Amino acid sequence: MHVFTEHALMKDLHQAGEKIVLLVLDGLGGLPLEASGKTELETANTPNLDRLAAEASSGLSIPIRPGIEPGSGPAHLSLFSYDPVTYQIGRGVLEALGIGFELGRDDLAARGNFASADKDGTITDRRAGRIDTEECIRLSAKLQDATGSCLPGYEVFVKPVKEHRFVLVLRGPGLGGELTETDPLVTGKQPLRATDKSGTPEGARSAELVNQWVSAARAVLLDEPKANSLNLRGLAKDPGLPSFGEIYGMRAAAIAVYPMYRGVASLVGMQPIPFQGDRPAHEIDALEQAWNDYDFFFIHIKKTDSYGEDGNFEAKAKEIEAVDEVIPRILALEPGALIVTGDHSTPAKLRSHSSHPVPTLLWSPIAMPDAAQSFGERACATGHLGLFHATTLIPQAMYHAGRLKRFGA
Amino acid sequence: MHVFTEHALMKDLHQAGEKIVLLVLDGLGGLPLEASGKTELETANTPNLDRLAAEASSGLSIPIRPGIEPGSGPAHLSLFSYDPVTYQIGRGVLEALGIGFELGRDDLAARGNFASADKDGTITDRRAGRIDTEECIRLSAKLQDATGSCLPGYEVFVKPVKEHRFVLVLRGPGLGGELTETDPLVTGKQPLRATDKSGTPEGARSAELVNQWVSAARAVLLDEPKANSLNLRGLAKDPGLPSFGEIYGMRAAAIAVYPMYRGVASLVGMQPIPFQGDRPAHEIDALEQAWNDYDFFFIHIKKTDSYGEDGNFEAKAKEIEAVDEVIPRILALEPGALIVTGDHSTPAKLRSHSSHPVPTLLWSPIAMPDAAQSFGERACATGHLGLFHATTLIPQAMYHAGRLKRFGA
Lengths: 409, 409
Prior knowledge:
Largest sheet of chain A: 8 strands, mixed
Radius of gyration of chain A: 23 Å
Oligomer: homodimer
């Protein structure tokens, strides 16, 4: 409800203007290890970000709702201004996008887990002993060969992800519904059959096809030493989100090392930009090369989150410093507005995503230079953006880039 | 809309976790007597609350909407995460709960006012010259005797409140609707008949029963010197709020000296805990005894509000100090999260509830220790909770107590 209204407003008001960069450091927000200490961001030596903060408006972003610990998919949707409570995306879709699979609007996608089972099918290990990725590639190819044509009238794609995880995509007419997962979620139980909760013909048909494929696939795996079973989770279709380009009138590009983030960006119609390398500097190479062809650039930095999940406070601070070093190259392109934020917090102290609000700055030549004179959680708490919902960020950047007409005369 | 969605989200995400304490100092927020001075809370010597604040996230709570002066009932509903603009509770229900009346789900309750009228029934004093409470008790008993059986098939309860105020409860089949008040709201007018705006059979029947009782009751009062008439306001039933336990998956206890607050808590399904005494220390005795049997504890401190209403700045500050003294006993129980807040502000300077936002802290071992290093209105304004709606507080405490699953993968 809310989001549709905001989007309608943006459609009415957008106009041509300057370019916008949304720089997302995944899991940026942190916590001090001791109550009296500094966070990862406060610890990092960031002369460029601090100078930006002194000229920018700062604040703290709420990705989903106060108190909600965000997953990466919903947190990014929110930054793209799609309220993730309204727009819920199935895990299968995110996983398929994550490996760069070109998901059609009518495809049904699921996240698959190779598993171990005993002779009567009872699950003994939900991750098949966390088999390595090479084994996952071999097993996925084996399933693709043996089950690719097992559903007459439907295409079947089995693609490896990482370790015990794979993606299943069914393509063909009349798929849909609201399907339950086959994973019993605990060991010592039989896997479940997929069932449809929507009560639609598409749902009934899809559940039947999924169960048929699962039976065929488990039969193929019977002789495997570890991964002799599997389960499906997050069965879903592309939800068909409203187009970012139509809402905001901007040609949008996505620059990300990890397929997952290119995938989420492509769900709203952003164009993923291919490039070589995996460091922040390589991503800025891609930014420079694509600069003339787009109006809006989403740049995703992954490792801040990974180090947070590892509990590696120092490495997270160092990665923030690596991003700090490329800031002058972004400014040299003269964007109308530059946002630096995170999709959520991942404090090394917690080794996990967390619900804490995310430090954010909005730099622009016409930004209000507020009380926040450096970039950090507590400095941001004093800033002019206040404590705000992540979905409100792009409209603010649009204004600063001259991309919004006045509302009313 | 908003609130239903939030509740649905909470139902999806809640899980078992640590215990939560919501400590409410009624009317906590204040004002300095002079612009350059300190508030009641800032004046009070609160070493324990200050230490909590240094480790906690702080902020300012908006109970209803900015600028709205809250009543106690709605302000508590909001703290319990029921937006009081969506969930409006009839005054009759609040009044019945306020005197400790055990209201059934299907009872119809009204706030009654004894009044003075001239010979033709025209109201000459809407409060019967503010008769004292003893007179109110006598008159209520007289009405109970004379009209308790005047509605065949229905039980009638007439209970004294204070001065000219009493409670009427009708109990029996098929009560409901949306009834108008009998009070003309000005003197020199005839009382009104209760009418039903819902157009339902329950409404029509209820209006008829109410008018029948009012006629009988006025006849009983005819010979009274002052209170020779009466009016009914806020006719309503228990609205049947969604259950706190179902939304949050927590067994919730309410510890409060005054029946009104136990009543509001029981409206959402919290369990009132009986105990001896009326000081904060007695309430903590009750907390300690009930600790193992519940997941969530609402503790209500009344006197901060009472002293604010009296304009007694010093006594309000002293009561805050009495609460400060029991904080170590709460912490010794090792809650996962402790909220200290008020339901609204009651500045001694104004001798009244006020719309000013309410100082709040959320303490937890994983809270962001923000810029607020003491507990006070102006310190809270620098904190990480920002200026927030009271309904968002429990979800945040839930996260900090490990009681919420991640949203999305």
